[in-house]
Specification:
seven-stranded parallel beta sheet; globular; DeoxyPurine in DNA protein A domain-containing protein; TIM Barrel; 11 strands; single chain; two-stranded parallel ribbon; 264 residues; DpdA; alpha/beta
Length: 264
C-alpha cells in the first residue's frame, strides 16, 4: 500500500521523496512549476469545485491541458483523478453545514454517477496517454455497484485499471459503513485508492487498498503547539510535522510494503 501525504504546498515536491498528493489547481495557477523529487499523484479538486459552484467550472479540455503541463514540467505523476461528481447529500442538495456553505448541484445520485462515467470516457478520449484514473462514486454499496456497472457498460473494465479511486467515503472512512463499502468493492478485484483515509480507516481496511491519502496531519497540527525549535504559531503548514505524522501512520499499518517504507 502506498500512502500519499496530501498538501496544498506545491513546492514540497522538490523537498521530499515521500509520495505526495496535490490538487491540480495548485499547479495550474503557478507561472513556474517545481520539479518533483519523488512520486506524486494529482487530485482533480472536485469537492471544492462542486462545493463552491455546484458544477465543474473547468472543462475536460482545460483539465487535460493542466495535467499535461504538470506532467511536462513537474515530472510524470503516478496518476491523476478524473473530474468526478461526489454524492454526499451536502454536495447534491446544498445548504450550510456547520461553518461550510455548499452551492448544491440539484442533481440526483443517479445523475452524479452518470456524469462521473461520462467525464472519464471524455478524458480518456482526449488524453489516452495521460494516467487519468476512474473514480467510483455513490452513497450506498448499491450505488457503488451501479457505478461500477455503468463503467463496465461504457467499455471500462475497472479490474484491469491500475488504480480506481473511491469517492464520497472520506467522512465515513473510519466507520463500519466505510469498511463495508471498501470490502464490497475490493471483492471485485479492484486496486482501490482511498481518498482522505486517516489512521482508523487505514487500520480497518488498509490491507484491501492499493493506496490512500490524507491531509489530517494539518488539522492535527493546528490543535497543538509547534514542534520544538519551530517559531510559527502552529505546524499546520509545516513539512517537518507532516513527515513525522505520516511516519506514525505508516508504523500502524500491518506489514507495510518495502516500497512504502523506502519512500518514507
Amino acid at each position: 500500500m502506498r500512502f500519499y501525504l496530501t498538501t496544498h504546498k506545491r513546492h514540497w515536491v522538490r523537498l521530499t521523496g515521500v509520495p505526495l498528493f496535490l490538487k491540480s489547481e495548485h499547479f495550474a495557477v503557478a507561472r513556474t512549476l517545481p520539479q518533483a523529487l519523488g512520486p506524486y499523484a494529482v487530485d482533480s479538486g472536485g469537492f471544492s469545485e462542486l462545493q463552491k459552484h455546484g458544477r465543474w467550472t473547468r472543462t475536460p479540455r482545460q483539465y487535460v491541458d493542466d495535467l499535461r503541463r504538470i506532467w511536462e514540467h513537474v515530472g510524470p505523476y503516478d496518476w491523476a483523478a478524473q473530474q468526478d461528481w461526489m454524492c454526499e447529500t451536502a454536495i447534491r442538495e446544498g445548504g450550510t453545514y456547520g461553518p461550510q456553505y455548499f452551492a448544491g448541484t440539484g442533481l440526483s445520485t443517479a445523475e452524479h454517477l452518470r456524469l462521473t462515467v461520462q467525464n472519464f470516457i471524455e478524458l480518456r478520449s482526449l488524453a489516452p496517454d495521460l494516467r487519468i484514473i476512474p473514480v467510483l462514486q455513490g452513497e450506498t454499496i448499491a450505488d457503488y455497484e451501479r457505478c461500477l456497472a455503468l463503467f463496465e457498460r461504457a467499455g471500462v473494465t475497472l479490474a484491469a485499471e491500475p488504480v480506481v479511486g473511491l469517492g464520497s467515503v472520506c467522512r465515513r472512512q473510519s466507520t463500519r459503513e466505510g469498511a463495508e463499502i471498501v470490502t464490497a468493492l475490493a471483492a471485485h478485484g479492484l486496486r482501490l485508492h482511498g481518498f482522505g483515509f486517516k489512521t482508523l480507516g487505514i487500520a480497518r481496511v488498509g490491507h484491501l487498498m492499493a493506496s490512500a491519502d490524507s491531509l489530517a496531519w494539518s488539522s492535527h497540527a493546528r490543535r497543538r503547539p509547534p514542534l520544538p525549535g519551530h517559531t510559527h504559531k502552529n505546524c499546520a503548514n509545516c513539512i517537518d510535522y507532516a513527515l513525522a505524522w505520516r511516519q506514525r501512520v505508516i508504523n500502524q499499518i500491518p506489514n507495510p510494503s518495502n516500497d512504502l517504507e523506502a519512500a518514507a
